[in-house]
Design a protein that fits this description.
It contains four helices and no strands. The N and C termini lie far apart (40 Å). The longest helix is centred in the middle third of the chain and has 19 residues. By secondary structure, it is mostly helical. It is globular and about 45 Å long.
Length: 79
């Protein structure tokens, strides 16, 4: 039975890169669906944020990882 190795925790630099990427693209990521804002465009944007974070930290992060971490950070701030 092969064990799945978990990814390391997000570093401070990775979190900073993620916040910067999300702030830069917030209108696209959190905007209402319409002419320019499509689910494909949002997914592409999350992928680009994940690539920015991967470049900073060296750990391969996915768009799903970014969405999950963003929701966790929002929850921590609101509580």
């Amino acid at each position: 039975m092969s064990q799945i190795k978990r990814q390391p925790n997000f570093s401070a630099e990775e979190l900073e890169a993620m916040v910067t990427g999300v702030e830069t693209n917030s209108k696209l990521l959190f905007g209402k669906f319409g002419g320019v804002v499509t689910s494909a465009a949002k997914e592409k944007c999350w992928i680009s944020v994940a690539e920015m974070v991967t470049a900073v930290g060296g750990v391969k992060r996915t768009a799903g990882d970014m969405k999950k971490k963003w929701c966790q950070m929002k929850r921590l701030v609101l509580n």
